[in-house]
Amino acid sequence: MNTLFYVVCIVAIVMTATTIEKLVKFRHQKNAIDEKSDAETERLDLLEERIRVLERIVTEDKHDLRREINRL
């Protein structure tokens, strides 16, 4: 066979391997981002709940506020 044919085959194999490698890295990064996003969403939910509690405490009467602070 022709030398040019072998060169073209080698280039095609290298390009395919590079593309597959990039695809695998991309999927791995996407999974890592999704995990990080889930953790951040959970933390944000906790912070929102804490803010709701603080808003409730602040808007209640002073008598209830003292009782709530003492309970904490």
Tally the beta strands.
0
- Measured distance between first and last alpha carbons: 84 Å
Bin the strand percentage: under 5%
Count of runs of 4 or more consecutive helical residues: 2
Q: What's the helical proportion of residues?
A: over 70%
**Tally of structural domains:** 1
- Shape, please? rod-shaped
| SSE topology string | HH
Structural class assignment: mainly alpha
Q: What do the pLDDT scores average to?
A: 83
Architecture overview:
There is one protein chain. The protein has 72 residues and is an all-alpha fold. The chain has one domain. Helices cover 93% and strands 0% of the residues. The chain contains two helices and no strands. The longest helix is centred in the middle third of the chain and has 57 residues, at 3-59.
Short structural summary:
Helices cover 93% and strands 0% of the residues. The chain has helices at residues 3-59, 62-71.
What descriptors fit this protein?
single chain; 72 residues; mainly alpha; 2 helices; rod-shaped
What's the structural blueprint in terms of helices and strands?
Layout: H1 3-59, H2 62-71
